[in-house]
């Protein structure tokens, strides 16, 4: 019998640390980081942690040792340590849906199965993970070497992942980030419902050498099913209905729906309801990644995530990268009242990382009620946004430096080039560090238009090179940051009821778009837009 996690009662407002932080925020609201550097020669070391091959430099955040101390006490008072253990032991942490939360097992499961230290989630989960991972990786390897082929006997040159949300963003981000390691078939991603993603992916594709991966945890998602049906029609038209079985693989918990779609039994892979979509790239949902970079490198990605898991579980709060990132976020959101977080990778191949984090952070912690449904009286997830740093400098950095809205900033940068251009990597590093300094120090004693106030809080997260291991670290780092914040805020990071209303309403709107007369009670706002959008529709 799986036990349900019991969180610390009362929420963050019931802690002494929260009130202490409120007092410190009033006192330190005007803290100048540049002045703090001038008076504290040890600041650069005191507010930076090097662990797991990463540097988390938060010395440019607007906090001092008293604030940091109170934040660390907040983690204790909110029972973070026992919440982390509960997740790893497989207790029901997703209390609103009554589910375990075990994406950590997807990368951590090891033999021997009954080694409780290696598999705190238990032998049954470990066995299921290892068996399914083995099947998925064997299939990926067979696609890569041409043992699995299309219906005409030709190896696959193009693989099209059809999925959305967690069944797209993580794999798409990872395949792009690890392009330096991609030596398999070309991998494309199709998510949007309007059909243009699919049209673009198929523009130069040959049906005889194209494999589709339909990834959908539920296999009920409208966008994914619409794209999958179109893809199936495209393929069947070119190669005949019988070819479909050899050109479609699928990943889902929904076996009946995979049956109905006609997915070959050997080409289907499962995941479990204890994996949230946005935490699923480590599962068979990562099939596209394994096909792109190969089995050993996919293993390194998992190992990087698992190493960060061990760090999260064992490191003291002072040295704990995800916990520190969580606490900095809470200081910025709740006490410095910065409602957005800009994510700025100085690495073009991390271009989908901000989009991946948008789902991870905002679908997880974009909540307004606590675990028992009570309204929370404080802000929760920030709005996350971002763009590779070089592009960002030439678009929205003006606002960040001199505009009236303020944001917290995460800079990400690697020591080494991923594409054999070390001089250009030096430029990227120089720009990243220069911008972080400019945001912190500002510019004073100049004409009004040139003044930069400074004190825009920034964290620099540095890594050596963007390899599979490091990407595993980065993703797990943000995953655990999000979980730690949810524990402190007393909300459930693992449900997403907020996405359902719009989906439900769409069922009623679609017939009107298709031509049905709107009923008398249809809202005027809807009628007005429909009248325009349907004006020139065929048949009108
Ligand atoms: O709409 C939100 C959501 O449910 C996400 O949580 C999920 O990642 C996405 O849709 C896709 O869901 P599925 O994998 O079931 O198609």
Sequence-ordered SSE layout with sheet pairings:
Layout: H1 16-28, H2 33-39, H3 43-46, E1 48-51, E2 54-60, H4 65-77, H5 80-88, E3 92-94, E4 99-100, H6 103-108, H7 123-145, E5 158-162, H8 169-177, E6 186-190, H9 196-202, E7 210-215, H10 222-239, H11 244-247, E8 248-252, H12 255-261, E9 268-270, H13 287-293, H14 295-314, H15 321-335, E10 340-345, H16 353-365, E11 383-386, H17 389-393, H18 397-402, E12 408-414, H19 422-441, E13 458-463, H20 468-489, H21 500-513, H22 524-533
Parallel strand pairs: 5-6, 5-7, 7-8, 8-9, 10-11, 10-12, 12-13
Antiparallel strand pairs: 1-2, 2-13, 3-4
Bound molecules: 6-O-phosphono-beta-D-fructofuranose.
6-O-phosphono-beta-D-fructofuranose is lined by residues 164-167, 216-218, 221, 224, 277-278, 363, 496, 499.
- Physical arrangement of strands within the biggest beta sheet: 1-2-13-12-10-11
Q: Describe the main β-sheet briefly.
A: 6 strands, mixed
The number of helical elements comes to 22
Ends distance: 60 Å
Form type: globular
DSSP, total strands: 13
Average pLDDT, rounded to a whole number, is 96
Compounds present? 6-O-phosphono-beta-D-fructofuranose
Helix content: 40-55%
Helix-strand category: alpha/beta
- Quaternary assembly: single chain
Q: What is the alpha-carbon Rg in Å?
A: 25 Å
